[in-house]
Automatic annotation (TrEMBL):
Gene Ontology molecular function: any one: beta-phosphoglucomutase activity
Name of the protein described by the UniProt record: Beta-phosphoglucomutase
Organism of origin: Flavobacterium hungaricum
Catalytic activity annotation: beta-D-glucose 1-phosphate = beta-D-glucose 6-phosphate
Enzyme Commission number: 5.4.2.6
Cofactor or coenzyme needed: Mg(2+)
Record family assignment: Belongs to the HAD-like hydrolase superfamily. CbbY/CbbZ/Gph/YieH family.
Keywords from the named record: Carbohydrate metabolism, Isomerase, Magnesium, Metal-binding, Phosphoprotein
Signal peptide: none
Amino acid sequence: MKKAFIFDLDGVIVDTAKYHFLAWQKIAQSLNINFTHEDNELLKGVSRVRSLDIILGLGNVEASQEDKDKWLIQKNEDYLSYLVDMDESEILPGVAKILKLLKDKNQGIALGSASKNARPILEKTGIISYFDVIVDGNDVTNAKPDPEVFLKAAQLLNIDPKDSIVFEDSVAGIQAANIAEMVSVGIGEETILHEADYIFKDFTQIETSFIEKLIN
């Protein structure tokens, strides 16, 4: 049976989360806002616009739309500068093995990410050919926990949402998968992702038998 396996990007396939943090931290420092790794957890699965609002809220900073637009552009330029040297070494452990297994078993593979830079990241890391469908921040209007990104991916694969499995590292992403009535697989900490149907620390913990169980 053919299922839809939908992957988030940042923190699931590649660890670009660290580059987002550095770029946001640079903006925060310029505004005299203390922005920590703990604060960064609030931005997981959240759009760029909403992320900036959260950071401004942390520092009680009021800003005009003109300033916000300027900072959003600056953040993305800083983030992209970190991606220039990306290669396959950025793929998180165990991910390539699972993608290959799904491809060998002729399953539907999609990306469902808020990132507007998903395609260049997949190209630079050499795994774009695994994906039948890519739905990113350029293709959707509603941010997670709205399930739009996952529902669109399943639709493009022509597979029922109930036959879809989502791999996510954010609370908002897990909630989106659950709202869409898809199987949710959390990648990360159990204390944070406790709403997921299944939780693994990372992809190295996912056995072939687990994937086969999801397919069948």
